[in-house]
Design brief:
- There is one protein chain.
- It is built from three helices and six strands, in the order E-E-E-H-E-H-E-H-E.
- It has a six-stranded mixed beta sheet with strand order 1-2-3-4-5-6.
- Helix 1 links the parallel strand 3 and strand 4.
- Helix 1 packs parallel to helix 2.
Length: about 120
């Protein structure tokens, strides 16, 4: 993630636009996302998580204070990324309220992800 990028477009079935901007997290190892993580933006989210995993060194941060919504598949991509890391943790900061609930529902006790609200 060298520069932020935006994806998304009109959601025909939803009647609205969806966008996700993901870029590096200044001063720390990780990424910052803005927008929403849904079927319309999933490929960008998964590319960002792949890059995060590639650069991971012990602790990586995912800052989500500007993310309005994340669907179950978006949380799944985050959980799978964390579980596939060779070591360390992913600290998720300020996520939308559904993210910790989905993690607890489907991955209770997943110690590779720490949620900081």
């Amino acid at each position: 993630m060298d520069a932020p990028h935006t994806v998304g477009g009109p959601g025909a079935a939803l009647g609205r636009a969806a966008a996700l901007e993901v870029g590096p997290l200044p001063g720390r190892s990780g990424i910052r996302a803005r927008g929403e993580i849904s079927v319309l933006t999933r490929s960008s989210w998964e590319r960002a998580l792949s890059e995060l995993a590639r650069r991971h060194a012990g602790v990586s941060y995912v800052e989500l204070s500007d993310v309005a919504f994340v669907d179950v598949a978006g949380v799944t991509a985050l959980a799978v990324t964390a579980m596939n890391l060779p070591e360390g943790t992913v600290v998720v900061e300020n996520p939308p309220p559904q993210l910790p609930r989905v993690l607890e529902l489907f991955w209770p006790g997943l110690d590779r992800i720490e949620v900081a609200v």
